[in-house]
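Subject: Sanity check before I submit

Could someone independently write out the structure tokens for this chain? I want to compare against mine line by line before I put it in a report. The sequence has 310 residues.
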Amino acid sequence: MEKSARGNWVDSDVKMTGKTVVITGANTGIGLETAIDLVKREARVILGCRNMEKAEEAKQRIITETGGNEDKVILKQINLASFASVRAFAKDVNENESRIDVLLNNAGIMLIPKGKTEEGFELHYGVNHLGHFLLTNLLIDLIKKSAPSRVINVSSEAHRLGSPKIDWDDMNYDNNYSASFAYNRSKLMNILFTRELSTRLEGTKVTANSLHPGVVRTELSRHMFDSNISMWRTAVKWIVDPLVYFFGKTPVHGAQTNIYLCIAPEVENVSGKYFKDCAIANENGQAKNDLDAKRLWDLSVEVTGLSEGS
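---
Independent answer below. Compare away.
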């Protein structure tokens, strides 16, 4: 089968006619660029966004860049730092949508000051992992009914930086908080979640894969140099900013692996893999630990309340 990408750019005219895609964090960055591309391919795209004012601006940009496909762009509010908001979003989708062909868990936070979700979980853990874990499980029956279908989790090469490990006794990073390690650990969780999800989806014709989009010039790193996080980050701002500007990917470039996993026919039966630059990559050893993947799944079920029924 011919590959749908040349290098790290998607090179395919595959259409998504009749398909529905749910994208979290689709009002900016690579999520927005992915939405624009998929609407051009005639997909119906549901933008799950926290800030509805920015979401409306994103919708208008999508409509403008895709030639007025207003009916293809649906806005729904979701705050991944609130289980109640995630449940409300999922309820809305389940009651009003007949299918989900692709769920792209794209939203995320990065290197933010220490904080808690509505339920009291550390923000990187709560938003980057638990929010998407809960959302995926609440939508999974509809995704299965729409098979062949796909779940895609945006992770990062940061999952290997500093050799992060999950501290099962301090999931909320109450001790010795580090924004960097909290972010890195949440990206490790994304891959472990994908690994266990893929195992549980065997035989359903639903695939689950994770990806690294690259170092992208987006709003995601806007907190990286906040002086209230640490002084050294402010000091290195003048070194890192130019490097990201000149060598980092644009949002369009950074969205390519998202797009590839959404549309490529050759990955329809590929599951449980980690991708970067539109190709299977090698995650680190910690991310391949099946025991940790199962333990994280069981813990996540418990803390999100899924063990008590959805």
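---
OP: Matches mine. For the report I'm noting this point. Residues 123-145 form the longest helix (23 residues).
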